[in-house]
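[Meeting: bench + compute handoff]

Bench side (C.D.) handed over the final construct sequence. Compute side (W.E.) agreed to return the predicted structure before the next meeting so the bench team could plan truncations. Sequence as handed over:
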Amino acid sequence: MGLTKSSVGGGAVDSGLNIKKQSPLDKVVALAGNPNVGKSTVFNSLTGLNQHTGNWPGKTVANAKGYCKSAGHSYILVDIPGTYSLMAHSAEEEVARDFICFGSPDAVAVVCDATCLERNLNLVLQILEITPDTAVCVNLMDEAKRKNIKINLKLLSERLGVPVTGITARRKKSSAKLLDTLDGLIGSHNASPFKVRYPEEIEKAVAEVEPEVKRLAGGKINSRWLSLRLLEGDSSLNGSIAECLGGGFLNNPSLFAALASAKEMLTNAGITKEKLKYLIVSSLVKAAEKICRGTVIYEKKQYSGADRKADRILTGKFTAYPVMLLLLAFVFWLTITGANYPSELLSRFFAFLGEKLSFLILSAGAPQWLHSVLIDGVYLVLTSVVSVMLPPMAIFFPLFTLLEDAGYLPRVAYNLDRPFKRCSACGKQALTICMGFGCNAAGVVGCRIIDSPRERLLAVLTNSFIPCNGRFPMLISVISMFFIIGGGALSSLLSAAVLTLTIIISIAVTFAATKLLSVTLLKGMPSSFTLELPPYRRPQIGRVIVRSIFDRTLFVLARAAAVAAPAGLVIWLAANITAGGATLLDIMSGALDPLGKLMGLDGVILIAFILGFPANETVIPIIIMTYMSAGSLTELSSVSAMRELFISNGWNTLTAVCFIIFALMHWPCSTTLLTVKKETGSLKWTALAAALPTAAGIIFCITINLVSKFFI
């Protein structure tokens, strides 16, 4: 899901290049690596923080920093986004590259996956071109052992020319070995890193440019590496180069002349810009192969047989989608079944506590209106949100995190890549959809993993079509009232099945909206991307539960409560302030009634959605309160009692269908819209993010209502 304190600015995040030291003696270490190598796990293990981790690429989308101490030094570890290469193609890859190149870290620790070391060395070799102060940390040694892969760490260190240590980051004591390695590296200046040799024509071109680059850079950055990037014409570096070396660096006449001469040499040798990139990459790959030869020994030719057998089912042509739907239905069933009783207990507890608070407030001599505002307004809305949200989240988030930890979510993206490609979008959008099930704000933040700005914006604008955890309670309530007959286990299974069908509808509408935007406002061809299917791993159940509760559930709950409390005051005022003998709530609902009837709903339902803007959990209680003409939020004791109340106020099966459709498709909550504004930096796109699902919901509801009247 990806929403943490660090991802929205609530934690120790610094996406810039300047790291503030607590002491001049602190050493800044960049923690680099490919996606999905356990880099954030190493970070958490050493710093004691809770940077979110997951068994799929792209989890870290900003620089997070933490502090730790060793026997010799105190360190500021900076967990930079995972990247396969410093030849950046996406926003998070640029963040990683810029920090290593221009952030002046005292050292770089490159975390590698022991089960696919050769591929990881591509990044290691690029970093060695920038700085010799590099340590290689080979993680997941336990998995390598399980797959009968042996790594000669001493020989690897000799070939790379830098210190190498092997760890299993899940074991805290094992991670501490990296600090010992850094202690030996810092200030030693004894490293003689491996130097990649490129074809002779490229080496001559670099030799032509490097003297000027070295003179102008003044030792601030490795001149050989920068010369290669300038020859490649990597325009994404221009801003960072200007900031680090001054605006006149790229416009210097002598450098311009040297670059022109070098590029002419390459052209004469038949090396185009595209071929130059190919030759550079192929040289890195061949060097990695050479280093690994004899260093990495595979005792079994087929060490990933079990993973491939599982993938035949989970990503198979005929089995992938049925398995996805069954898993989704299973998660919903467990959530629905498990959340009912805790929600009821919490509701009773808050009712008991409310009585005690009410007595204390009245005993203190507070006026009746203040008592009503605090208890019937703020307290009831706040406790309603907590009792409704907490149990489902406490079940839903860990279940989804277990699937994530096991490595299933990348398979979801793989399966949905083709339909998203047909919508001219990116398959990674599937991962942001998964985040949206927990919280749409999390889904919007997670869109940073998408490389293309156009496709990233498509994912941001359509994420709210996916129902978040806050919308599940009202969906489940209405489904239980009008579409499920009976009780017990069968009832919860049917509820899960209908809810799954509802989710399928929301995903289908997401595809349709994405396609509509991609052929109108956001035209363009879909970009290609590399999606790694990580190995299946045994989830750490204890850590998953603790992390999900503290890092996700309580964080999202606190944010929802922060907007629910003032919303309670607004709702109370609307329900208690009268004009002409009617409350403001009645007046507003009456004004919206014509539009509501046209949509197959009524004005009360529409005003409940409007007042539920800060927190969707309050929609059903507001409807009940208005129907019962109560001055405060009210919850009925049973689903059957709620159903009778709704039917007596004109509800039928058509109303329930239109309610479900509008619950799926209406404006995002306040938190999500604020997140959209933060991510896009545009009021225009934020307004569209609100208008698009709202317009779709209104059109769908009106169409369903009119069509039903035609046939009935």
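W.E. noted at the follow-up: Confidence is low (pLDDT under 50) at residues 1-15, 52-61. C.D. will use this when planning the next construct.
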